[in-house]
Protein 1
Amino acid sequence: MAEAEEQETRSLEESTDESEEEESEEEPKLKYERLSNGVTEILQKDAASCMTVHDKFLALGTHYGKVYLLDVQGNITQKFDVSPVKISQISLDESGEHMGVCSEDGKVQVFGLYTGEEFHETFDCPIKIIAVHPHFVRSSCKQFVTGGKKLLLFERSWMSRWKSSVLHEGEGNIRSVKWRDHLIAWANNMGVKIFDITSKQRITNVPRDDISLRPDMYPCSLCWKDNVTLIIGWGTSIKICSVKERHAGEMRDLPSRYVEIVSQFEMEFYISGLAPLCDQLVVLSYVKEVSEKTDKEYCARPRLDIIQPLPETCEEISSDALTVRGFQENECRDYHLECAEGEPLFYIVSPRDVVVAKERDQDDHIDWLLEKKKYEEALMAAEISQRTIKRHKILDIGLAYINHLVEKGEYDMAARKCLRILGKNAALWEYEVYKFKEIRQLKAISPYLPRGDPVLKPLIYEMILHEFLESDYEGFATLIQEWPGSLYNTSVIIQAVRDHLKKDGHNRTLLKTLAELYTYDTNYGSALEIYLTLRHKDVFKLIHKHNLFSSIKDKIVLLMDFDSEKAVDMLLDNEDKISIKKVVEELENRPELQHVYLHKLFKRDHHKGQCYHEKQISLYAEYDRPNLLPFLRDSTHCPLEKALEICQQRNFVEETVYLLSRMGNSRSALKMIMEELHDVDKAIEFAKEQDDAELWEDLILYSIDKPPFITGLLNNIGTHVDPILLIHRIKEGMEIPNLRDSLVKILQDYNLQILLREGCKKILVADSLSLLKKMHRTQMKGVLVDEENICESCLSPILPSDAAKPFSMVVFHCRHMFHKECLPVPSMNSPAQFCNICSAKTRGPGSGILELKK
C-alpha cells in the first residue's frame, strides 16, 4: 500500500505541469503533494464531501456522515459520527474551538471541541450549508446560519435558548455561504446576496450571469479576500466586489453600505473554487475536453491557475493540471478549494483525493533550476539564501555543477568553478584533481590550484608538473615561474628535467626552467652558469637577489659580453663587493670592455679612477675618439705630455690644439689650427678664448696674404681688436671677397659699441643719483641717544647724570658717539672730524653728522 501511495505521489508531482510543454523554461509557482497518512485510510473506504481548514488543524467530512479532525500531515486526531449520510458542510470559528456541521438528512450540529457546549437540530429537508459566527467563542456572538430552502439565522438569547429568524427564502436552495466579520454572503439559484448582521440589512444582490447552468451541478464559489472584498466565481465568470460605506447624504431609506463590482472577467473553464494569494487569485477549474478520436466530451484533469485580476480581464501567472485520483468520474461540484488564513496553503479536495498546493520556497526554486540544469543560477540562489534553505547545501550544488561541466566537456570552466566552490577544502581539491587526471585534463585545472591557503600534498603539484613536462615545455616553464618552490619536491622535478635534457640538451626552455629550479633549491651557482650560458636577462636579477657577487668575479667578461650596460651599472653600484681594480684586471685582455667600464666610472666620478686616466687616453683614442676631447677637458689627472704624444701620433688635430693651449703653447696651437685645419673661424674663436694680443698679431700676420682669412677677420675682430690695425696692413690692390659687407659690419659693430656705452653711462648716472639720494635720506635721519649709550673714547655714559649741566657730544654716521672733549682738535689742514674707531680718512659714513650741545 505504501509503495502504491509513493508511486501515485510521484505521478502527481511529475504530471502537474503537463498543461505547459515539458520543454518550458517557466518555473511553476506552486508545488503539490498528496495529503496522506490518515486521509489515505479514510478515502480507501469512504469519499470526501467537504473540508474546512484552520491554521491548527483540518476538518474533513465524508459521504458516510463522518467528520475527521486531522493535523496538517493528514493524521487523524478525532472522529465524529454525525450522520449516516453525506456531510454537506463544516464550519469553524476563528479560534478553532467551535465547529458547525450539516448533512443531507437535515441534521445540524454546533458544538465546542473542547467544551460541553452543543446545539442539535434536525430539519425536514437537506441542509446544504452552515456557517458559524467568526467570533463564536464570544458570548455576544453565539450565532450561526444554515441554508436549505431558506437561510436561517440562529442566535442564543440571554436565557441560553436558541431562536431562529429567516434571512432569505423563495429563490431556491441556498448552496454556498461565507461569513466574514459582520457580513454574510450566500448564493441561491438566482444570485449572490450580502447581509450586514450589525444593521440587519441586506445590502446587495449580485445576479448570476449564465442561468443555463444547473446550480446544483455548477455551484457558486464564494471567498472573502478581506473584511470588505468578496470574490464570486460561478460558471466561467469571476466578479470581485467591494463593500463600501454609503455617504450620509445618499442614505435615505437605503442600507448604510453598498457593493461595487471592481473587476469582472471570464475564465476558460468552469470554476470549482477560489482563494486569494496576496493581490492575485488562485482558481480551481473543472475541465472538459473533446476527444479527438470519438468527438465526445470527457472529464480532464482539473487545473489550478494563479491569475492577476484586471478591471475587465485577467493575466495568467501560472497554470497547472492536477492528476487527482478518480478525476475521470468527477463533476464540477465534486471539487473544493480551501485555504489556510495564516500561510499560503491550498487544499484541493475531491471525493477520492486531497492535494495540498504550497508556494514554492527557495529549496523548490533550486530544485527546479537543478532539474533544468541551470547550475550557475542554482548556485547563486543557494549562496544568496544560504541561511534559509534547508534541503540543499552550496557545496553539493557546486560539486554537481562541476560534474555537469565536465560531462559537457567544458573542462576549463569546470576548473575555474573549483576556485569558487571548493574554497579552502584541501581534501576536495585533491579529489577533484584526481578526477581531472582520470579524464586526462590535468592541464585544465593547473592554473586554478591553490598555492597558499590551503596547500595541497606535494604529490598533487608534482603530478601536474610531470604531465606538462611530458607534453608542453612552455606550460611547464610557466608553472615553475608561477608556483612557489615550496609546493613540491624540487629535487624530484630537477631530476625529471635533467632526464629530458639528456634527449634535448639544447632546449632553451628546459634550461631556463632548470635554472629557476636551482634557485628554488638554493643552488645558485648552477643557476648562474645556466643563465650565463643562455645569456638570459634574469642573470642580473639573480645576482642582486641572492648576492652572488663573489661568484661572478671570474665571470665579468661573460656578463659584459652579454649586456655591457647592465653589467657596468651593476659593478659600479657594488664597488664594495667587487673592487674597481679587480674589474680592470679581469678586463685587461678585453680593452674595448675595459674602456666601457672606465668611461662609465669617469662619468660618475672624475676622481675615483684617476690612476687609470693615463690608460684611458689610449682607450679613448682607440675606441671612442668623440669622447676623448671631453675627457681631456674634464680630467685633472691625466698626464698632458702623454696625451699630447698620443694625439700627435694619431694626428688628432683638435685634441692636440687643446693640449698645446692647456700647456701654454698657444702660438703653436694657433699655428696648427691655421695650417692643419685652415679654419679661420676656429682660429678667431681660439684667439678670443685666449684673449692674448700677441695671438691676434700672429693671426693677422698669417692671414694678411690670404683674402678669405682677411674677410673672416674683418667680420669678427671688431669687438676685440681695432680693425684699423688690420686695414692698414692690407696691400693696395688686393682683391678681398665681400669687403664692402665686412666694412659695413665693422661700422655697425662700432655704432653698437657706442650705443652700448651711452646706455651704460645713462644707467650708471641714474643709479648713482638714486643711491646718493638714498644716502642723503639715511644721513638726515635722527639718531636715538639715551642713557645706555656710552662714549667710545672714555667709555662713560654719553649723557651726564645731571641733566641740568651743560654738555656737548658728537655722533657719527657709523653710530659711534663721543664726548666732544674726548675727540682730538681738528687741524687747520683737515677741519673735518672723523670717527676714531672707523679710522675714516675721507668724508663718508664715519664723518660727524651731529653735534649736540646744551
Note: The longest helix spans residues 739-780.
Protein 2
Amino acid sequence: MAALAEEQTEVAVKLEPEGPPTLLPPQAGDGTGEGGGGTTNNGPNGGGGNVAAAAASSAGGDGGTPKPSVAVSAVAPAGAAPVPAAAPEAGAPHDRQTLLAVLQFLRQSNLREAEEALRREARLLEEAVAGTGAPGEADGAGTEAASALLSRVTASAPGPAAPDPPGTGASGAPAVSGLATGPPAPGKVGSVAVEDQPDVSAVLSAYNQQGDPTMYEEYYSGLKHFIECSLDCHRAELSQLFYPLFVHMYLELVYNQHENEAKSFFEKFHGDQECYYQDDLRVLSSLTKKEHMKGNETMLDFRTSKFVLRISRDSYQLLKRHLQEKQNNQIWNIVQEHLYIDIFDGMPRSKQQIDAMVGSLAGEAKREANKSKVFFGLLKEPEIEVPLDDEDEEGENEEGKPKKKKPKKDSIGSKSKKQDPNAPPQNRIPLPELKDSDKLDKIMNMKETTKRVRLGPDCLPSICFYTFLNAYQGLTAVDVTDDSSLIAGGFADSTVRVWSVTPKKLRSVKQAADLSLIDKESDDVLERIMDEKTASELKILYGHSGPVYGASFSPDRNYLLSSSEDGTVRLWSLQTFTCLVGYKGHNYPVWDTQFSPYGYYFVSGGHDRVARLWATDHYQPLRIFAGHLADVNCTRFHPNSNYVATGSADRTVRLWDVLNGNCVRIFTGHKGPIHSLTFSPNGRFLATGATDGRVLLWDIGHGLMVGELKGHTDTVCSLRFSRDGEILASGSMDNTVRLWDAVKAFEDLETDDFTTATGHINLPENSQELLLGTYMTKSTPVVHLHFTRRNLVLAAGAYSPQ
C-alpha cells in the first residue's frame, strides 16, 4: 500500500443519472481502528439507496483520523434497487470478467441508466457485455453469486510516486476482486455451492486472490522482523498479531489453491506460535486443499468471528505506520477484515499480563463485553421461624436461641437475611413458591448450620472419598444431594444408578390399588405410601441410549436430571424411580445439565455449542444461549438463579442473563477446554478449571480475572467452595484433591477503574501460599466434589487400575 499522508480526506464521486459528476464535500474518517475495507451498505429495495465501495486499503483510523479512501457511489432512479459502484478500467482479464458480471447484473435488474454510466466510466463496448450470455441465464445461484461479488468490488487509491501495490493492474487501476480465482462461467459467477450451509460461500469469499503467493513468506518475515526489533514495551503487544495473521495468510493460500506455497509457509512459521495454540494448528495443518475448507468448523469459526486483540494506542499507531511505509497491503487487509483491534489509552501491557488473558479460540473478550451490570448479590431469604423439636436435648436448647439470629458469618459468608444492594429484585424472574416440605428442609439446614465446622488454614476439612470399584460400565457423571443423603452416577452403558449413603434405604411408592387403602389424613401418610418390599440401597434407571454425561439432583431431592450422548435430558422421579419426561432440543450429545438452586429451572449444554434453559413443566427450552464457538462442556447456575455460567471447548467462560438470554460476561485466559465451574456462596466470584490444570478466579461484578491457582498437572474436573466460602476444593484427573485458601485469594483485590478499563491485571504468584493441602488417591481420578452442610468434603471417582 502506498504511504498515505495523514491529512488526506475522503472524497465521494456521485454519479447522477443525468448531468455531470458532482463532488461531495470532504468528510472526516469514522473508523475505529478495526474496520473492514470493502463493505457494501445496501439501501432498502425499492428506494434509491447508495452503495459505497470503500477502499480495501483504507486505514480504518482512530477516531477523527481521516480515512484515505475514495468512495464512488451511483444513485439509482426512484423505485429501483441499489446500484453498485463504478469500477475503473479493467486492467487484467480477471478484472474484466468481474466487471462484465456487474454489468450483467445491472442489465438483469433493468437498471439501464446505471449500466450506461458504468460502461461509459469503464469504456466497455456494448458487444462485449452482450457476449457474456443472455440476461435471463444467470438467475438463482448466479444472481446470488453476482450480488456476493458486488460486495467485494474494492477500490484503493495509489500513492503519488510509489510503485503499484500488490493486487493492482499494471496501469495503477485498483484490482476488482471476485469470488473465484479463475474466470467465472457465464451462468454462475464464481459461486461456491455448499448444500447444508448456505453462508459458506460468503464466508469463504473473503479469501479471494489478493497478492502474489510467493511474497507471503516475505510479508510475514518482514512483519516478524519489525515486531522483534521494536521496543520491549510494544513487542509483547504486537506479538499477538503473529497467530491470527499466520492462520489467515495460510488459509488464503490454501483457498487460492497455492498448495505448495501454503505448505512451505506453514512449515516455516508454525513453530513460532504460542504453545497454547498447538491443538488449533494441528487442525489447521490438515486443511491443505480448498475442498477441505468447505464445512470445516474450525475454518468457519475463524472466518465468522473476528479475532480480538487488545492493544494500546501507541503500539497500534506503530504497527499502522510500519504497514503504510512498507506498503504491505496484504497484511493490512487481513488486519482490517479479520481482526478486531480493541484499542485502549494508557501503558502497553506486559508479556505476563497478556499471557494471562489470551489463549481462547477467538482471542480476548472485547472490553465492551464485560461492561453491563450484573446483579451478583443473593436474594433475600424467606423468614422462617426455627421451632425447637421436642426431642432436642437440654444441651441443644442452648444452641437453639442463636439459631433464630443465625450465627455470625464472615464477609464471604453465605445467605443473608438483609437485602443485598447488589441483589436482583426478588421478582426479576419468577421463582417457585416454597412448599411446606421445602420449609422443613430449610429448618433442618439451619440446624445443621449451627453444627458446621468453621474452616480455615488452621482447620482443614475431613475428606470422605467414594470410590466406584469395578465400574467396568465407565463412570461418566456424579452428583450428590444437598443434604448428602443420595449419590447418583451416570455410566457409559447408558444407565443412571442412585445409591443411598445413609442407613435409610431407597423405596418406591406403592401401586395404585394399595394407595387407595391408605388413610390420607394420617400424619405419617408420606411414610405409609412407600412400599417396604422395594427397599434397597441401589436403584438403576434405564432409558438413555448412550453414555450419561451429566447428572443433577433437584434441591428438594424428588427429582434427578440426566443428560446423555443420545441428545436428550431426562427427568426421573425419585419417588417411583421412573422417567417422567425426555427433553429433546439438542441435536448432539448433551455434556452437562444442572438444576437451579430454587428448582423448577434447569440448564443443559452440549456439542451443538449452545446452552439451553428449561423449566420442568415445558418440553421446549425457554432460552437458548448461543455464542460459544465450540462444545459447551459444563453449566452452572448462579446462587441467585438469575444467571447461568457456561464453560466451553473454545476456552472461554460466558455468563448469561436468564431474564433476556443476553451474554453479560466473557472470560478468557484458559489455555484448554473448560470442564468445571463453581460460584462462591456469596455470588461475587466464579472459579473455573480446565484441561490446562489451572484454576482461575473471576470477579463477576468487575468482569476481571483476580487469581490463578497452579498445582494440578491434569484436567480439573470438579470445583466446590465450602459452605461459608472460606475454602475452595479442586479435584483433578491427576488423582488429587487440593484445598485452597479462598479468603486470602480474594482479599485486597485490585479492582480500580483503570484495571477494569484496560485489563492491566497483575496476578500474584502465590499459588503455593494459597494451597492448604494436597490429598492423593491411589489411582482414582476425582470426578466430583461436594461439601456437606457441616463442611465435610465428599469426593467421588472410579478406580482405574494402572
Note: The chain has a mean pLDDT of 73.
Protein 3
Amino acid sequence: MDFVELEAIEGLRWSWNAWPTTKNEVSSLVIPLSIMCTPLMQSTELPLLPYDPQICTHCAAVLNPYARVDYLSRIWDCPFCYNRNHFPISYSGIGETNLPAELFPTYNAVEYKIDKVDSKFGSNLHLGYCWSNGFSSSNVSLSSMSVGTPRNIGGAGAGGEVRGFVGPVPAFVFVVDACMVEEELRAVKNELLLVVEQLPENALVGLIAFDAMVRVYDLGFSDCSRVVVFHGGREVSSEQTQQFLGICSTKWGQQQLGKTPVIQKLGFLLPVSECEFNFTTAIEEICSLAVVMPGHRPQRCTGAATSVAVGLLEGCSVNTGARIMIFTSGPATLGPGIVVDSDLSDAIRTHGDLINGHAPNYTKSCSFYNQLSQRLSDASVVLDLFACSLDQVGAAELKGPVESSGGFMMLGELFESDQFRKCLRQIFSRDEDGYLKMYFDATIEVVTTKDVRICGALGPCVSLRKKNSIVSDRETGEGGTYKWKLGTLTNKTCIAFFFEVCDEQRAEPGSAFLVQFITRYRHGNMGVRKRVMTAARRWAENKSPEITAGFDQETAASVMARLAIYRAERFLARDVVRWMDDSLICFASKFGDYIQEDPSSFRLSSNFSLYPQFMYYLRRSQFIDVFNCTPDETAFFHLMLNREGVVGSLIMIQPTLLQYSFDGPPVPVLLDVRSISADVILLFDSYFNVVIHYGSKIAQWRKLGYHKDPNHENLRKLLEAPELDAQQVVMERVPAPKLIKCDQHSSQARFLLAKLNPSVTQNSTFIDGSEIILTDDLSLQDFMDHLQALSVKV
C-alpha cells in the first residue's frame, strides 16, 4: 500500500489504515488511531464547484461518492447516519450517466466556491450556479470550474469620518518595536514599505509603534502626524482601547463565517488606496523616544502593544480575516507580558529557571497571552512574530497566541538578513490569479460514522467546544468538539486528529467506516470556500494481517512526536522520555516476532522496522532534549513541528544525509558518524539547518584552488552539486533554514556531529584517522539491543 499516493488523493495520512472493532483491541495497538490531515493540500485534480454543497439534514455531512442515490426519486442516503435526503430541483437531470462532480468515484476531495454577499451590505455576488451548468460526467472540465473576480469596497473618511466598507476585506496591523538599533529599524521600515506597495488597494492597514509607550497612528489625518498614546506599563481592556481610540464597537463576536459585517472605520485602519502616503510618512517617522539607562535594557512593552492592536481590530469588527504582525528585537521589559526586568543584572530565563520556578514573570505572562489567544480566536485575527536578536525575545511566552491563531513565527539574528526578507515576501506572495496566498477565518468540522468517536486534535487550531454524539469524553489536545477554528492556514498546514472506537454496538469486521473533513475558509479574494474530503477504511478483526499491513510507520512517528511535545510542555523531560520508552517497548513486544527470553530471535517486519529508529532520533532531538536550547528556540521548534506534514516532520525527527563523491550521483547514506569520509561531501538537512560538510581531502583541494583548474573539471562539478541542492532546499522552505558550510574537524562541523548516530566514540575501537564523536549517549545499535532485551521478557 502506497500511503504517499493515497495522501495525494485524499489529503490524509492514517497511522492505521484498518481499525479494530473494540476499545481493548485499539489500546493494545499502542499507537493511537489518528489521521494527519492537510486540509488545503494542493492537487491538480481538485474540482472547484461554483455552487452550494448538498448537506445531510441530520448529521450535516456533505454529499460524497459513498452516498447511495435513488435517481428516479432524486433521493440520496447519507452514508454516515443513513438519513434520506431529497435533491433540490437543480438536480432534476441527475442520472447514472449524468453525475455531479461530488459523486464521481475518483473525487474524494472537492471544493465549493460560495461567493455570497448579504444584500444589506451590497449586491448579491452569488452567481447562481448549480451542478448542471455543464458539470456532468460526460463533459466535466476542471479548468472551467474557476469563476469570480476580486471585490471592491468603499473607503473610509479621513480624520475620523466613519464610512462603511461593503464586502469582507483583509486587514493588516503592523506593530513595530521602536527600540531597535537604527540599521535594523531601517531594514524593517524598507520591507514594510515594499509590502504595502504589493497589497491590494482595498486591503486595510494600521500602524503601531512601541517602546515604553504604545503609539497608534491615525493614518487618515493628513495635516500632521497624529497618534494616540497608551502607557506601556498598564494592561488595557478591549473596551478601554476602543474608547480611547474613539471607535464605536459592534457585536462582532456574534458574527458567523460567511456573514459579512459592515466595517466601521476611523483613520486608524484604512484602505491602502486612501492612506499610502500617510502610511509611508508614518513609517519613516518611527524612532525610539525612550531613554535607555546605562546597565539597563530598553523599556519595551510588547504585550501592551499587542493587546492594543487586538482591541483596534475588535472595535473595527474586522472578523473576516486580519493579521497583527509584530517586529521586535528584544524581550518585553515593561507591562503585561513582561519577560525580564530592564536591569541587565537580571538574566533572561532559561529552561533550568522554568523547571526550578526561578522565572517570576513567566507564568503571569503566559496567562496574559493565553487570554489574548481567546480574543484572537473570537475576532478571527492572526498573530505573527518576526524576532531578530542575538538574545531571547520572549517567543516562549508568545507561542500560545501565535500557534493557536495559526500565525507565523521567525527567529533570526538580523532584520537585514535575506532570511527575513524572504519570509515576509513569501507571506505576501500572490497566486496565478493575482490574489494573496492567504486563507483566513477557517473552521474544520469532522463527521464520522456512528462507531467512531472524535477525541481531539493537535495543531494550530482551537476547539469550539461543540459536542454531539460522535465526540468522545476522552480528550486529546484540543478536544471536546467536532469543530475547530483556525485563524489562518496554508497549503501545507497539517493537523493531527485522534479517534477512538465505540464498541456499544460492535462493528462487523470487513465493513467500511467513513470520516469526512469539512474545511470552510476565506480565499485570498475573501470569498468563502468549502473543501470537503471524504475517506473510507475497513474494520478488521484483532490480530488480522490487514491491521499490520495498514500500519504507516512514518505517520505514526509524526503523531507520536506531536504527543511527545504536547507532554513535554506539561511534564518534565525525563517523564516524557519514560513514556516514549514504555510505549516503544509495548509496541515492539506486541508486533515483534521472537522467542520469549531470547533477544537474538527478535525481528520486526518491514512495515514496522523503521519505527524504533524514528523513536531513537526523536529521543535525541531538540524537541525532547532541550540541552543547549533556549526556551524561545524550543517554543519555535515545537510550533513548527505541530503544523508540519508527515514528510517535514520526519526530516525534523530523523534528518536526511546525502553523500556526494566521484563515484557517481549523490546517494542517501546512514545518519551515522561512519558516513563521514575524507574524500566525500555530505549534505545534511535537519529542516532548521542545512549543512554542507566537506571531507578533509576535498577541503584541502578546494583551498589549493584545484577546482579552478580546467583539468579538474570533475572536482568543480563535485563542489557545485551539493551547493545547488542546498540552495534549492533553502528556497523552498519557509522560514528558510540556516545554511552552514564546514570542513571536517572544523568547529562548525558540530551541527552535523550532534545529530549523527554515535556508533564510534572515545570508548570504541576505531581506526586512526576515522571520525569519532565524544559522547556518552547510546548508539542506535545499543538502543536496539536494550529494546530487544526488554521486549522479549515475559
Note: The longest helix spans residues 713-732.
Protein 4
Amino acid sequence: MSKKRGAKPKGLPLFGRGKEQTQFLEALKLYEGKSYKKSIKILDGVLKKDSHFVDALALKGLDLLSTGEKTEASSLIKNALSKIEGTTASPICCHVLGIYMRTSKNYAESAKWFHASLNNGSNNMQIYRDLASLESQIGDFKGALVSRKKYWESFPGYRSNWTSLAIAQDMNGEHQQAVNTLTQFEKLVEGKIGDSELYEHNECLLYKNDILYRAAGDNKGKLVNAMSNLKAIEPSVYDKYDLLELKASIHMKMGELKEASKVYRMLIKRNPDNFTYYRLLEISLGIHGDNNLRKTLYEKLQKFYPRSEPPKFMPLTFTENVDELETKLEEYVRPQLARGVPATFCNVKPLYRNRRSIVAPLLEKIVSNYFKELNPTNDPLPYIWTCYYLAQHYLFMKDFQKSQDFIDKAIKHTPTLVELYIFKGRVLKHLGLLDEAAETLERGRKLDLQDRFINTKTVKYYLRAKNIEKAVEIASLFTKNDESVNGVKDLHQVEAAWFIIEQAEAYYKLYRDSERKLKEYLNEMSTKKSAEKEENNKNGTDETGENFIRVLKNYEWQVNKYCGLSLKRFYAISKIYQQFEDDQMDFHSYCMRKGTPRAYVDMLKWGKTIYTQPIYVRAMKGAFKIYNKLYNDSKNLNENEQIENLVEKVMQEHSKKSKKENSVLNKRKEEEKKTVIAYPESDDKDPYGIDLVKSNSPMDAFMEQFYENYNRQAKEQERDYEFEFDYQYSNGKLALCLSALSKYTKYGHNSGLIGAMTIVLLLATKEDTKFDTIAKKVALKGCESIIEKFPVHERDNSDFDWLDFFQKNFDYHNLHALLFLHQYKVVESSRTKELILNELANKEPLIQNTVLQYEI
C-alpha cells in the first residue's frame, strides 16, 4: 500500500549513472513521442552497460508492449520487478510501471505503482488524475476522492475538476459536500458562461438537484429545499422532461398529490403515449383502487388525446363487467385490424398475460367474427392481418395446428410478405421442426435480400437447427470478409453476442450428438464376433480394422472439435463482457471533460451489473455444462474401460494405418480452421479450443473465467440458486450447497425443486460419499431445518423409497425438479425417466425434443 505523503524518497538513481540517466531521459522523451523503436535502441545501449538499471528495464518493457511484443515486454517487467524491494524505485520507474500495468489492464497494480511514484517524490500532479480514474475503475471510491481532491487543488481553473470532485464526494455518500462543491463553482462562473458551455451547465444543475433529492429521503424540509432549487434552475435547464419528472416526484414525496397530478398532466400533454405517466396520474389523484373513477378519468382523457393508445388501453386492464369489457375490446381491436396494423396482437399481449382466462376467449370470439365478415378479394389488408392476429392468438394458446392453418391462409393470399414467413417459422419451431422452420425463414429472406432483420432471424433459426455452415454463409452476407473466408471473425470483432451465443449452443448440441454416435459405434464394434476378424486374417486383409480406424478417428475429432468450439464461443462471450468492463476506463475522464455527470453515474451503476446480464449468465451456464461434464468424466475413468481397451488394441494392431489417418485428419483440420477461426492467428494459437477442453483443472478454469465475475456482482435476490447448488456440489462444498438451498427456499417458488435439492443434499452426506466430513455434518444439520418433518433419519436406509416420498410431499409434476433428480442419479434412473416422459407428454414438441436429446 502507499506510504504517507512527505516520506523520504527512495529508489533514486545511483551515483555514477549520469550519462546513462541522460540517455534514459532521452529514451523517455522518444517514448512520449511514440518513437518506440528509437527509444528501444537507446535503452539497449544503456542496458548493455548496466543490465541492473531498473528504470531502463521498465521503460523498455513499456516500449515493447506499445509495439505489440507482449511476451518480451512481460519478461522485462518481471526482471525489473525482481530487482525492486517493495516499491522503493525511482518516481519515474514507478510511473512507468504504473502505465505498463494500466495498459495491461491490471488496474489494481497500476494504482499501486502510481501511489508509489507519488510517495517516492514525484512532482507530476497529472498522476492524481490518472490515479483517480484507476481507483474509480476498481471501485475504490474513497481513494478516488482523495486523488480527485489533490488534483482539484492543483488545477482549480477547470470545470471538469470541480465536477469530478463532486461526483467522488457523491459516490462516498458526502452529499452535502458535493452540493457545496457544485454551488461554489456556480458562484464563480456566474455571468461568465458562454453559449458552448450552456448544455454542460444544465447537466451539472440537474445533477446537483438529483443529489439534493436523493439525500433528502423522506425529510420534508430537505425536499422543500430540493424543490426550491429546482424552481430556481428551471430557466437554465434544457431537459424539461427530466425537470418535470423530478418536480412530480418531489411533490409526491411531500404528499402534495394535487400539485403532482398537475405536473403529470403536463407530462401527458407533452408525451401522451407514455403509459407510466398515466399510472402515476392515477396514484396522484388517489383513484388507483376505484375502477369507476378510473373509468371516468380515461373517458375524459380519450377526448383530449383521441389518437393516443394509453387512454383506450388502460380501461381494458381493470374493467370487470364481461359485456362492457367485450365492447371495449372490440372498439380497441377492430379498428386496428381494419387499418391493417401488424402489431395489433402485440398491443393486447399484456392482457393475454395478465387476464388470460377472461380476455383470450373474448378476443378469439371478436376477431373470429370479424374474420368471417372479411372478403379476401375486397378486403385484402384486413384479411391478411386478421389471419396474422389469429395465428398469433392460437400460438399463444398452444393450439399449433390452428395457428399454422391461419398463417398458411395469409401466405396463400399474399406470398410476398416477409413477416408471414417469420411467424410461420416460429410456429414450426414450437412444433419441433427446426429444419423446416429454418427453410421457411430462408424463403422469406429471399424476398428481401437487403433486410438485416430477416437475415439475422434466418441465421438464428439455422443455428438452432444445428446447420452452422448455412448460418455462417447467410450471416456473412452482411459482414466484412476481406481477410477471411466468412464473417465469423468480423462477427467476433463487432461483438455480435447474439450470433456467438447461438453458435456456441449449436456446437454444444453437435458435441453431444457426436459423443453419442461415438459411444454407439464403439459399443457396436465391441460386440463384433471374433470370427469375422479370423476370416479377414485368412484372406490377408483386415478391412474391418482399417475402416474402424478411419471412422473412429473421424468421430473422435468431431467430439473434440465441437466441444472445443462450443467452449471457445462461450469464452468469447466472457471476453466481450470483460471488454465492456475495461471500456469504462476511458469514461472516468471523458465524462468529466464533456460535463455529463448524470450519464456517468448511470454508467457506474450499470457497471456493477455487467456480469449479471442475461447473455453472460447464459454463456456461463453453457460453459458450466461442458466443464462439469469434463470434470465428472475425469473422475469416472473406469466406466468405459472395456471400450478403451478395445480402441487401444485396434490402434496398436493398425499403427501404420493410424498414422496415415492422422496425416489425413491434420490436413482436414488446416482446411477447416479457415472457416472457424474467430481471431487473428497471431492472437489465437488454439482456434478449435482443444487446449480449453484439455484443462487439468476444469472447475478452476470455469471459476476464473466466468463464476468469479458473476459472484462478485450478483445480488442475493437475483442469483440462480439451482446453478449455485450445481456448481458448489461439483466443487465438493456441501456447506455452500446448503446455503444455496436455504436461499432458494427464501426467494424461489418451485416447491418441487426445493424437495429435489434437499434429497440430493441429504444423500450426499452419507458416510460412503467423498465429501468433507465436517461439511457433511453441517449439511445434515441444515437439512433438518430446511423442510419440516423431512425424514433425515432415513438417510442410511437403503430400502427407503425417496422417489415415492418426493411424489407424496412435493410437486412431482414439475419437469424441472424431475430432471434435477435424474441428473444426480440419487434414485433409480428408469423410474425418474418414466415420470419425466409422462410430464413431457403435456409439453410442446420443442421442449420434448430438447429434453429427450440433451437431458435424458
Note: Residues 1-16 have pLDDT under 50 and may be disordered.
